Amino acid sequence: MYALRTAVLRPAGGWTALEVVASTGSTNADLLAEAGRGAPDRSVLIAEEQVRGRGRLDRTWISRPGATVTMSVLWRPEGVPADRLGWLPMLAGVALVDAIAEVAPDVPAAMKWPNDLLVGPSRGKAAGILAEMTAVSGGGPGVVLGIGLNVATPAHELPWGATSLAAHGLTATRAEVVVALLGHLYLREAEWRDAGGDADACGLRSDYRSRCASLGSRVRVERPGGDHLVGMAEDVDPQGRLLVHPDGGERVAVAAGDVVHLRPADHP
């Protein structure tokens, strides 16, 4: 614990506060509560085990003790317009890819829009990201961002389509993964914040594009209203929306939805 604190907290790492707990229901829920009580900007909460974690679209995320990296961070990016906060989950995705490149350079990693981590030649999902706004009270508005990363979860405990870093040859320890990830998260968010949340000015949009496997792929986007869109994913706009050119139609900017990468044999 001391070594972790030394590596990630100020002055070495830039983070303000760090807490590690043995078990919790949800690190996001816990840190949201702490934010309401005035927890400082750039606080970190890590759990060895999480039993009621939440993912996007109200999915659950349960972490096995000792096999995952389960953490949440609190950011209070004063001066950044609210309409730019949607970049934070995508920023975290870029940080994840870069952290894996640091600790496991032989493990292929990329993003599926907006923020699912794909790992290995078969591009299995290895991590999920969830961002939630804090209450206005208790130190001002902020964002709690949670990351669940499968480091060494056994294959038989993973759902279909999921994978872990260890399954693709990771030899680094979980502590080394945490230090690398928090380092990249801090630097990315600091640059983005200094640019007023402008994803182009700080290079975030360009870097996200280069790490997003969805771009240039034929996709099916399942949207929250229940309909779906099939076409070519062409780009990400300055607001972080996925630009899809549907079959026989005009380009559409997608703000939310689940993306499925289609193979040649797949049908809408």
UniProtKB/TrEMBL annotation:
<dbReference type="InterPro" id="IPR004408">
    <property type="entry name" value="Biotin_CoA_COase_ligase"/>
</dbReference>
<dbReference type="Pfam" id="PF02237">
    <property type="entry name" value="BPL_C"/>
</dbReference>
<keyword id="KW-0092">Biotin</keyword>
<dbReference type="InterPro" id="IPR004143">
    <property type="entry name" value="BPL_LPL_catalytic"/>
</dbReference>
<dbReference type="InterPro" id="IPR008988">
    <property type="entry name" value="Transcriptional_repressor_C"/>
</dbReference>
<dbReference type="Pfam" id="PF03099">
    <property type="entry name" value="BPL_LplA_LipB"/>
</dbReference>
<protein>
    <recommendedName>
        <fullName>biotin--[biotin carboxyl-carrier protein] ligase</fullName>
        <ecNumber>6.3.4.15</ecNumber>
    </recommendedName>
</protein>
<dbReference type="InterPro" id="IPR045864">
    <property type="entry name" value="aa-tRNA-synth_II/BPL/LPL"/>
</dbReference>
<feature type="domain" description="BPL/LPL catalytic">
    <location>
        <begin position="8"/>
        <end position="193"/>
    </location>
</feature>
<keyword id="KW-0436">Ligase</keyword>
<keyword id="KW-0547">Nucleotide-binding</keyword>
<keyword id="KW-0067">ATP-binding</keyword>
<dbReference type="InterPro" id="IPR003142">
    <property type="entry name" value="BPL_C"/>
</dbReference>
<dbReference type="GO" id="GO:0016874">
    <property type="term" value="F:ligase activity"/>
</dbReference>
